[in-house]
Amino acid sequence: MDAVTLSRLQFAVATYFHFLFVPLTLGLSILVAIMETKYVRTGLEEYKRMAKFWGKLFVINFAIGVVTGITLEFQFGTNWSRYSKYVGDIFGSLLAIEATVAFFLESTFIGVWIFGWNKLSPKAHAACIWIVAAASNISAYWILTANSWMQHPVGYVIRNGRAELSDFWAIVTQPYAILMFLHVLSAAYILAGFFVMGVSAYHLIRKQELSFFKRSFRMAATFTVIFALAEILVGDIHGKEMMKSQPTKAAAAESVWETTKGAPMYLFVVPDEANERNKVEILGIPKLLSWVAFGDSEGVYRGLKEWPKEERPPVAITFWSFRIMVALGMLFALISVIAWLKRKNPENSPGFLKLLIYCIPLPYIALALGWTVTEVGRQPWIVYGMMKTSDAASSVAAAQVGLSLAAFVIVYSLLGIACFYLLIKNARKGPVPIPALDR
Q1: Are 315 and 252 in contact (CB under 8 A)?
Q2: Terminus-to-terminus CA distance in the chain, angstroms?
Q3: Is the pLDDT of residue 348 over 50?
Q4: Phi/psi of residue 230, nearest 5 degrees
Q5: Is 342 helix (H, G, I), strand (E, B) or coil?
Q6: What pTM, to 2 d.p., does this model score?
Q7: Nearest to 142 by CA among 106, 104, 101
């Protein structure tokens, strides 16, 4: 493989691994903040124990997320220096704001929260975790705004052979960025909710700390059902925006080759990219795709053949990633509604609780598929319609990139094993028992 392909693989490995930890950080920080706020308002010690137990899992996850995130930014200088030179004026400013405003705020107050249990008043301590939660989510906005600019570049001018910032406000308020943020944030909250419900289910099946984990389950079920249903709405709106901003990605996601008025939607197709067609088309609903995309059953859906082959994204991986992601999103909505309905006495449904344990990995898979659609569907562009990926890589030997890729895989595998071992061990162990004298 050439250096560009290896660089893409290396960045993909780093991104996928990093994003195993980001969404749980975003969602669990909010849930822990809610738990501690309930402790401050009610004085009930069980809420304090909840905040400590789930907060411990949050801290383990947060630590690995920070480590893996730093290496991503280094790659813009080592593997993608031409990209950095061409658009660094824009992209670099967004990452700089994220680091100096959000990340340092987040990392400072997480330390205060960890070591301040017996040193701060309950209200001040709760305020610390809310600052951590807010900073984490603000950090996500700046990162996703930077990525959104790569998907739909706005607010720039080409001057002296470089893209230079001309309208900062246009970049940070463009609809694509806002919708992408809401879409990813809802998915992260769903993941955190399933994580808490799954771990709670494990203990409820074993009749361990029933009151503790019933409260955790109820809180997570309500949290999850809100965002699982919201995700369907946000995803639909985001898809319509993608149709306007990235029509080639939209065509690949639905495997539409011919421009069609009143395009049908097929549940199942087998894209044949070599012959520019679909081998199999099953369960087609007439005019549904045009109606979903435009709100008009007679809308014209542009097909991939309108663009040269060299400007089309890979169709099969984009199509299947999109299809499975949407199917999982629907499944999450269904399961979260059932969980909410059973929230008062979940221990009476052991079969459903066992299902929730097996469901813990599914939001991770859905998020990975979402990023696959986002990044693979943008190809061959690194900045859509503006700079191709092949023009963005550094002038480095393929052997060098291959060596660093192997190192990434080894180190990340060790980090992943250590992190998930600690998460599973502490999740199974449960909260610290109440001292006998306090019972």
Answers
A1: yes
A2: 64
A3: yes
A4: -65, -35
A5: coil
A6: 0.90
A7: 101
